[in-house]
Sequence to fold (676 residues):
Amino acid sequence: MKNLSLILIALFVVTSMLSAQWKWVPLEGGSLKPTPVQIKLLNSTAQEIKFEVIVGGYLERPVDILGKECIGVHIPDCSALMERGFPTLPRFSKPFQVRASCDVEVVVLEKQEVDIKLTNPIAPSKGHFTRDIHPDTVPFEFGPIYKEDVFWPEEKDQFTAGKPFVFRDVRGILFNVLPIRVNHVQMQMKVLKRAVIALRCEGESVENVLTTTSRGHSKTFSKMYQDFVGYKAPSILLEGDDNPDQKLKTLIVVVPDQYEQAIQEWVAWKKKCGYTVTVKSVKSGITAGEIKAYLQTQYPFGYLVLIGDAAYNSNFEISQPMPTFKGKMEKAAADRVYVRLAGKDNYPDAFVSRISARDAAGVAAQLLKIIRYEGGAEEGDWVTKGICIASDQGSPTDKQRADWLIYGGTSGQKVSTYGKGLSEYGYTMTRIYDPSASSSAVTAAVNPGTGIICYIGHGSASSWGTTGFNSTQAKALTNGLKMPVIWSVACVNGQFVHNEECFAEAWLRNTNGGAVAMEAGSTNEAWVPPCDKQTATINGILKKTHTTFGALECQGALAALQYWQDTDSSQGNQLVEQCNLFGDCSMIVRTKKSTAAQASFERGLDSNVVFIVTTEGRAVAQATVTVYSADFSVMVTGETDAEGRINLVLPQDVTVPLYYTVVGQDLDALIDQPLN
Fold:
């Protein structure tokens, strides 16, 4: 009977022709190889942004659906319209910087489309569904639109802009283009070749107005702003400024008063790493709303770490000892809401994570793991070893997506993996894929030490569906300080509110190993968008764009909002709300075999001290050097330039002994060195 059911399912479910390769179809005069949609900025003023949209062609491949030959179409770096029963068509989205307080109107000045005769219908979408559902049990259907003599999407919906939002220092809008429209009665496809668009600022808006033009020097956030078309940096962002952003290097720690003593060693460590740390001790009964009201008074800051678990309560905002919020989209447990501080939108304005422990000893144990990981105490090349775990389900399958992370993207990806992936970067990857994946294979790969784990598959609150590796096995790992950072695409691996101990918590609570940080969902994740978010995060490692756990994950969150939209009911917002970070979001993620830092210094004029940081005879850029007294009443910090140099100006007439610490990505830190 079971076999008969499987046969019946197979009869009405599509089997995508995964062996069929994407074929690039160039438009006349367009690119001869697969090319994303291009935006060419023509003119930008406070009143109008004028730009050209250029489409060089599209990808197509045959797809068999219910015995009917269809066509799959795609354009690199586009997401897709995934409305059930409608054609699966590409959507290009890009954020634009706009004036601080205007309404935005989209004006189409010129447009050129190419008419193409269809030989077969465009494959329909199954729509979005979550990873607790096997994709083969969801049938395809050709909706009524296939019998209507209209072009879909409608012309009026081809160029649109979302509502203005504020992302820390930048006010923006998300601009969307639907480059392909199709009529299945006429069997015609219209492909956009070129358009000239103007985004015009009209009047004054009261929606998400940017109240300040600068939050201070922010290297990390300014890298994220570069993706905004028309971005103009505030004047305070000076080229060659050696000092790190003190607003970004501000860490707020919210801790229940019963755990305050347990965090002291870690707080001191964060100060030695150059952070200005503010500890907010809270009493039992505090609500998430009250905590956020306090955070609003402290903004701008860069990082927020919440200390403590949230015991189950149907109202997450009063969960104790450290509550969380319910997200807008599906009421998911969402720490991200804490850092929506500039504007009433869905964009994070700082980085946030949680040290989820049930007692003071558990808090201290997790924080000690972080201190030792960042300091680089464990030798060896374990950090360059990685693991990809993936199911064989989906179209493309999860293991194909995992291979894209390892070996580089393909032209069929929505978010392409940078370069040739993790293997080219220097990782030696272990692939644990269905149908032969096992929990013992995970244990065998993790225990010798590994730097990164990427999971794509089914999940539960206590396990990974692929391998069956569970919380009990995660707590039995013996990898010591050779700990990975885990990026998990799965259902409810991070369901910390509903469970005494979820899967992510089990990894971090292991005192003999486990993981040092993990990103995981508190609800059921969808099939496609989380993979795009994961890829964007991995690209942050591959491009060396960001170094901290929080900044890397935020790059993925911004991609989710861009590719899958930023409205309250969008897949993008669902994803950024359900994904929570377990660990220290300010922690530097190690990606290469560490080398020992060396520092020399000399006194300059007045109270200046010039440091030069090297490792193995070469200069180290972007290393943080902090000089401080034992009680941190004196604390001066800075970041080295391309020559490994930083000039720190100490206070006049300091009489107490001073020390310095040097930290950086993939460096064995110099800690508590005397400044003679």
Remarks:
- The first strand starts at residue 23 and ends at 26.
- The longest helix spans residues 360-375.
- The chain has three domains: 2-202, 380-582, 595-674.
